[in-house]
Specification:
single chain; 304 residues; alpha+beta; eight-stranded antiparallel β-sheet; 12 helices; 8 strands; 15% strand
Length: 304
């Protein structure tokens, strides 16, 4: 994360240190994260980038979010300036509606506040909203406000383009067979058991990154190219591991395994898929229950 974007959440903490922290903010920050809802204010985090965002709309995998700042002296003509009573932060804030972006659920880290001003799906105030005003145009491209806006835009771009789940084209079985890698060869080269070897050849489960690296010399391809041939991942499983409620478990797994957060998320994905591939109908798997079971085994009962 850049120094400038270290960012709205740190500014929020600094402001809160100087003022009384509202009870509602304490409660929201201490609670276990749930699924996002319109009108909430969240801390968004991705690989060192941190920003505070207001949620205007939610769908199955993304939210339409607006960067929130406490420096209400900085704004442009699309910025909505709200008074202290408009949120549980109990201080004036600015919603940068012109920088609204579709963010994936998995960048959302923790809810910190709630808006009392209703928003439209695009982030603009609803017709029945009151007590707000719009900012004024940027005085010049070289102004502090323009620089501040540019930093927010860069941060939102990082959050909007965040990805963690590998994308597969589905050609892995054909690739393995083309290179003469049957069940016996896969068992030997990858040190796996027969059910997993068969699942790989039947496109029921993907290769993991370490397995792709082991096969790279034999296939004459990079590990990334091999992973790109994996079967498509179950959308419901990817979504379950993308929910903010799973983030604390992911972080604990990362600490346990000495890996980065996103690598830990992929470990959980592949391990859950591998277990599901042993079932007769993995497509009908209860993914939330299977993910619960995985974390219970790896992290213990306190992970639930």
């Amino acid at each position: 994360m850049s120094q400038a974007s270290s960012s709205a959440y740190e500014r929020l903490r600094a402001a809160a240190a100087q003022l009384r922290i509202p009870d509602a903010v304490r409660t929201a920050a201490a609670a276990a994260p749930g699924d996002p809802r319109p009108g909430q204010i969240w801390r968004a985090v991705w690989e060192g980038v941190v920003e505070v965002v207001a949620i205007a709309a939610v769908d199955d995998t993304t939210v339409h979010a607006l960067p929130v700042s406490l420096e209400t002296r900085f704004h442009d003509s699309d910025t909505v300036l709200l008074p202290a009573e408009a949120s549980t932060l109990e201080q004036p804030i600015a919603l940068w509606c012109g920088l609204g972006s579709r963010l994936p659920w998995y960048v959302l880290d923790r809810q910190v506040s709630e808006l009392s001003v209703p928003l439209e799906a695009d982030g603009s105030p609803a017709p029945d909203a009151s007590g707000y005003r719009y900012g004024s145009p940027l005085p010049s491209p070289a102004s502090q406000a323009a620089e501040f806006r540019s930093t927010l835009a860069d941060t939102m771009d990082v959050l909007a383009t965040a990805r963690w789940a590998p994308q597969g084209g589905g050609g892995l079985p054909a690739l393995l067979k083309q290179c003469g890698l049957g069940p016996t060869e896969l068992i030997h080269r990858l040190s796996i058991k027969p059910p997993r070897a068969l699942a790989l050849l039947r496109a029921q489960t993907p290769l993991t990154a370490p397995e792709a690296r082991l096969l790279a010399p034999t296939l004459g391809m990079s590990a990334d190219a091999i992973l790109a041939a994996n079967p498509p991942l179950p959308d419901r499983l990817v979504h379950e591991l993308s929910r903010p409620a799973r983030r604390e478990q992911i972080r604990r797994l990362a600490h346990l395994t000495g890996t980065a957060e996103q690598e830990a998320r992929r470990q959980a994905l592949f391990a859950t898929l591998t277990l599901a591939a042993r079932q007769e109908r993995p497509a009908e798997a209860d993914w939330p229950a299977r993910v619960d079971r995985y974390f219970h085994v790896r992290l213990g009962p306190e992970s639930e």
